[in-house]
Design a protein that fits this description.
single chain, 625 residues, alpha/beta, ABC transporter transmembrane region fold, Rossmann fold, six-stranded mixed beta sheet, four-stranded antiparallel beta sheet, 20 helices, 61% helix, 10% strand, disordered N terminus, disordered C terminus, binds adenosine-5'-triphosphate, AAA+_ATPase, nucleotide-binding, membrane, ATP binding, cell membrane
């Protein structure tokens, strides 16, 4: 005659996933703002399911009623039909049928109650998760600067899961267990007010014991989770750095450290179970003691003919049922706490508006008519307003030109790129494409015009062809192959076992750096933006790949305004204009030759880069006189 909550010696009960998320939710940053309001703010998501919740309530009432009815039926059978004075076999059969009927109704009600509630809870979470995902995707880069990716992943995955506990477990328990308790109490008072009154002493006692234990259980549970996280973090770091560990012969030391973490986890886990078992058995002990007390008090009453035997039976059954809802309700305290923390964190993310937003009245842009003229007009920028990283940047790139931006590390090269793509907005000045302020275009239009290849070429899980067309179905296979041909990637791709259908794993780890660059070039040709920004990879390539990449670059920049953030000066030797940045300012500008002739910072960088620049250096040794 369980009320649907199976007893578990694991503290907290519930699924592993939910427990993990609850622990995470509670162990991470507990903001003072995490309160019931945070949860209430998520209530509108539940509104479309209000009929479902009402349905669940009705089903819960039916289910509880059948539970309370069953001992009562047995009581009637014993006292009315089994009494030796007036035995009634037909009545007995009728009661048995009613009993079976109530069990069947209870089971069916319970089934639908669980299914409807889970469906509603998970639907709510689905909506919240989708909104979070969309919201995060809409954010500007400054948002990602201040929000660790790991935290966002947790928001979308486990925080939402924790909140779902509120909509399912918490809601269900409050209704089901609260109602169940009330019904049992009413039934007991209905049977015998005196014995029922004595039994009421148990309620505060059970609540206090339960809450005290739960607090401790929660603490131990969190310790176990934290120690498990330590193991996972250590393992991840070790796997990532396995080469270094092997080269420096640190395997034993690392294994010892791992075992310490492992042991700490074992101890925490055993301690957690220990307390959990003590708690459950204490509860059971109290339950049995209560039954014994009822047998004693009720039995005496039976002997004195104060109550009938069936009433005593029903009392014993109700006392047994009595413990489950109290246990379950106190357990919800944890659920409520974790859900509030998780809901607060979700709310914090949902409240952030993107720093870069589209103009409410954007200028319509026809990208096919865009020529690709870029102007930076006295642009100043800082990731934090009081720390400028670009000052008074002023330059123009004519359509189809290639421009190189060079400078020491941290000079502000990538920041220029981030402004042109509107990952950030300038603090002062403006940036124009074909005379249109990019803040006046929608970001969708802008990103159709401006293509970007970042240092670390990002490849998605999928085939090479998928990666070239970035999952845009309207780009045909022929167009993909043509794009690859143009940048000189076709041969390399054809050599792969499955050609264009070769699957890429783990951000394209099965390709070399140069090969990834070529795929990125082909991607640009296939998508065809008028402007290309290339944040060149810092790692040096072998000379053969370097040649492939530079041929690819020539192809991809052909007829396209190209801005190269150059880490290798050789890449931009033929650029129409080179900007030399130093501490956020343009300190020199000109062509490769003119800058070398100037003998300033560029010439300096050039000398340090180790590239020989002698006109004769390009001449084949055989032709030297
Ligand atoms: N997201 C960011 N938040 C805060 N500061 C940043 C951020 N990105 C860059 N910076 C700072 O801005 C300055 C310019 O960085 P930027 O990445 O533009 O330089 P860079 O010339 O491209 O350097 P590198 O050649 O090393 O890539 C640096 O001082 C850097 O620390």
């Amino acid at each position: 005659m369980s009320l649907g909550n199976e007893r578990s010696d694991r503290p907290g009960g519930g699924s592993q996933a939910s427990k993990a998320s609850q622990a995470q939710a509670s162990s991470r940053d507990k903001r003072p703002g995490a309160n019931f309001q945070s949860l209430l703010r998520l209530l509108p998501y539940a509104k479309p399911f209000r009929l479902n919740f009402i349905g669940v309530m009705v089903l819960v009432i039916i289910f509880n009623a059948t539970n309370v009815l069953q001992p009562w039926l047995v009581k009637v059978a014993i006292d009315r039909d089994l009494s030796t004075v007036n035995p009634n076999v037909r009545g007995l059969v009728f009661i048995s049928l009613l009993y079976v009927g109530s069990v069947v109704v209870g089971v069916v009600a319970n089934y639908f109650q669980i299914i409807i509630l889970q469906f509603s809870g998970q639907s709510i979470i689905r909506t919240i998760r989708l909104e979070l995902f969309r919201h995060i995707e809409r954010q500007s880069m400054s948002f990602f600067d201040t929000n660790a990716i790991g935290r966002l992943v947790t928001n979308v995955s486990s925080d939402t899961e924790t909140v779902s506990q509120f909509f399912t477990n918490f809601f269900l328990s409050m209704i089901r267990d609260g109602l169940s308790l009330v019904m049992i109490i009413v039934a007991m008072f209905e049977l015998n007010g005196r014995i029922a009154g004595d039994a009421m002493i148990l309620i505060p006692l059970l609540f206090v014991i339960s809450l005290l234990f739960r607090k401790q259980l929660r603490r131990r549970y969190q310790t176990t989770r934290t120690r498990l996280s330590n193991i996972v973090a250590f393992l991840a770091e070790n796997l990532a750095g396995v080469r270094i560990i092997q080269i420096f012969h640190q395997e034993r030391r690392q294994a010892r450290h791992f075992d310490r973490l492992n042991n700490a986890h074992r101890e925490a886990n055993v301690a957690e179970y220990q307390l959990s078992v003590i708690f459950n058995r204490t509860f059971e002990l109290l339950g049995n003691a209560a039954v014994a007390a009822v047998v004693w008090i009720g039995g005496t009453a039976v002997l004195h003919h104060a109550i009938l035997f069936g009433t005593l039976y029903a009392f014993i059954s109700y006392i047994r049922q009595f413990f489950q809802p109290i246990n379950s309700i106190t357990q919800q305290w944890n659920t409520l706490q974790s859900s509030m923390v998780a809901a607060d964190r979700i709310g914090q993310v949902l409240m952030v508006e993107p720093a870069v937003e589209d103009d409410p009245k954007p200028v319509p842009v026809h990208d096919e008519r865009i020529e690709g003229r870029i102007e930076f007009r006295d642009v100043s920028f800082g990731y934090k307003p009081d720390r400028p990283v670009l000052r008074h940047i002023d330059f123009t790139v004519e359509p189809g030109q290639m421009i190189g931006v060079v400078g020491a590390t941290g000079a502000g090269k990538s920041s220029i790129m981030s402004l042109l793509t509107r990952f950030y907005d300038p603090l002062e000045g403006d940036i124009r494409i074909d005379g249109i302020d990019i803040r006046k275009m929608t970001q969708v239009d802008l990103h159709r015009i401006v293509g970007l290849i970042q240092q670390d070429v990002y490849l998605f899980t999928g085939t090479i062809a998928d990666n070239i067309r970035i999952f845009r179905k309207e780009i045909s296979d022929e167009a993909v192959i043509e794009a690859a041909h143009m940048v000189g990637a076709h041969e390399m791709i054809s050599r792969l076992p499955k050609g264009y259908q070769t699957p890429l794993y783990g951000k394209g780890a099965n390709l070399s750096m140069g090969e990834r660059q070529l795929i990125a070039f082909a991607r640009i040709v296939a998508l065809g933006p008028r402007i290309l920004i290339l944040d060149e990879a810092t790692a040096s390539l072998d000379s053969q790949t370097e040649e492939l990449v530079s041929t690819g670059l020539q192809a991809v920049s052909h007829n396209r305004t190209t801005l190269v953030i150059a880490h290798r000066l050789a890449t931009i030797r033929d650029a129409d204009l080179i900007l030399v940045l130093d501490k956020g300012r343009i300190v020199e500008r000109g062509t490769h030759e003119s800058l070398l002739a100037l003998g300033g910072l560029y010439a300096d960088l050039h000398a340090k880069s180790g590239i020989e620049y002698e006109p004769e250096a390009n001449v084949h040794p055989m032709h030297k006189v």
